[in-house]
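Justification of computing resources. Each target in the renewal requires a structure prediction run like the one illustrated here; the chain below, 456 residues long, is used simply to show the kind of job we budget for.
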Amino acid sequence: MKLCNNLLWYALQAIVSILRKDSSVIDTGTFTANAVITGNLNATKDVESENYNKIREFFAAETDAFLVSAAMNYFGMESVNDLPKRNVFSSNLHQGSMEEKRKWLCEHAANLFDQYVSDSVTELGDAHQVVSDQLEQEALPCRFSSCTRVFKYAKCRINHEKSKHGLVLNDAEQAPTSTQTTSQQSDEILTATQTTPPELDVPRPHPEPTPVDSEELTTPTECTGSQKSDIKKEDHIFNYGCLHISLGLLIRDAEDSVKEGDGQRLVRVWKFLTLLFRLKGCHKYALAGIRLIASIEGLLTPRKTHQLIWNRFAGLKHGLGTRISRDERLEQLNKVSKEEIRSRGFPNINDDSVVTATRSTGTIDKLVRQSNADLQREVKSGHHCNSKQKSTFTTILTQVHCKAKVFMFCAGREYKTFPGLRRDIFKDLCLGPLAKWLRQKKQQWHRQNRHMYKFL
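Resulting structure tokens:
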């Protein structure tokens, strides 16, 4: 299973669909408006193979601009050349030790993260508890008096009771188990967990308030005073900026985990992205994510699990942050193979010569690299630098911080193309269908791997 290149491609495709709209060119500081202002029209195209790197470079520059703008707002700076007016160094900290300065920096970095990022995933804690409660399956003991058998599935218990004991019971009178719970019952369980009255059949994930007396009820087109005040307290332009930072850091975390060869961190990123794929309707990508998590948690042996987590990177250089994904390394070796096959000449290219060339690719590449090292010959890096990256960053920062004032909180603001935007990424994630989907996949993989349990 490919975890690196494909992961970043899928994730960038889902994230860009959240932040970009073709009609948002009129809204200063948005993805499309920044792309037009900087003249980077490639960033407005679909995230495909030929446009991926162009969009990724622009998104990285935009994420840097949003981060710098948030930091400037946190420290009270109007421009990059200005001095901080808030959260400044104390007078005695200038003469303090390096450890004290590092502690001050980490403290304010944590405050900056809490203010602009952490609120974007506040729903995950409650969602984890709700889904876990729905996934728990009750044990189903046999209802014959002298039988001690316990079953996992209701259908297995019914078949056992009928074939072994001749017992036929009406299951409609029995209390429904977690395996028998329908999607509507799952919704009722979820709404009850979220302190919504069980008698209200309301859609998730936005339960309606508790009903009051008829005299206090308002018309459907009206809002109460508290609801109006809540709407006014929201700054949806500020929410857009916080959402952009959260999604940008998620992509950057995945890229950095590949560079550092940190398999466990990459798996944690996969867990976030699995829910994001599910939210955006990318069900195949979400299935790939949940299959990866299931493989690590129980479908594979400990040895295979360790290989799946850590054997996804390649290192050709020494030092920190020099790893690349195995997919990228495979493309590099394919380039060597193609050059060797091409050098044979067209009349000599056949199936046997291609097999011979590809089998010797690793050895040839190793000899070339070793010869360059012995001759102290510097090899050019394959990294391409964008000469316009700095000017792009400066232009976006001006649009975000000076013109749109994205992080200057002002209640009631919103973009025309992003009305009512909330900063919580997973607010609209439907937990009932998610729990049902996870339960179906769990049972499916359990049946598929049942024949292997006897070897454990």
